[in-house]
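Supplementary Text 2. Reproducibility record for the structural model of the 290-residue chain.

All settings were left at their defaults, and a single model was retained for analysis rather than an ensemble. We include the record here because the model underlies the residue-level annotations in Supplementary Table 4.
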Amino acid sequence: VFTGTFAPVATAGGESPGHVVHLRELGRQQERELLTQRFLERLVEALPTAVMICEPKTFRVLSVNRAMADLVGQDESALVGAVPPYPWWAEPPVNPVEGWLTDSAERWEQLYRRDDGALVPVEGLTFVLHGADGAPERLIALVTDLSERRRFEQQLVQSSKLASIGELAAGVAHEINNPLFAILGLVEFLLRDAEPGTKAQERLLLVQQTGLEIKDIVRALLDFARERSDEFAPVPLELVVRQTLDLVRKTSAKKGIEIVERYPAEELTVQASANQLKQVVLNLVTNAQH
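Retained model, structure tokens:
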């Protein structure tokens, strides 16, 4: 392995009759160092984590990898040479950049703005590389996109809210059941004494029919809240759709919305969570109503 320099030879008249090439064979130690340097450069470029290498005195960007350029939506060449405040900062950091020059790695969170204007929450880890004399030579920043993590956290919060709503609905359904059974039982006794074809019987039958409809809705709510979303079993799709529509049919009718059901002749069964499928159908129907 050789290293060398290449320079033109200029005469007094400004002509360049030739070039001087100086080659020097590298020793084994220098060859290993060169290979190590090339390996590290290729490794940094291939990392999925965004990497930014800065000059520690001015914090001028010396180089970035492809992941960093993709994170902020710009070419690598557009990032090199930037100094604080960096153009991709949507807001200044909580702690000044001078705080990054410590012996320990510094972790921080910040909001970046991509070239298309989209905001990206990021988490950074900065550390200093020291030279032979102990002085800071390079500042390395590893930047992670937190967008997926934040979306996942929001989904967990939403799932927790849905679970709480399910428990509340089950509690309300139980509270409704007790007086509802009393009402239906009393209407049953009153119907025995009512004269057939009278207004009194007609009104009692209407009360009974309404009570039975409420009973069906309460039962559907209890079934919906009782099923665990992590249990997978053979599930008939038609049954799932019918049970879900029972929950929304009354409210749809009041809004002037008609639900038309068409099912295939053959039974379709899948290995799935019945409760999760009901939530899917419920979301589709609700979106269609809106």
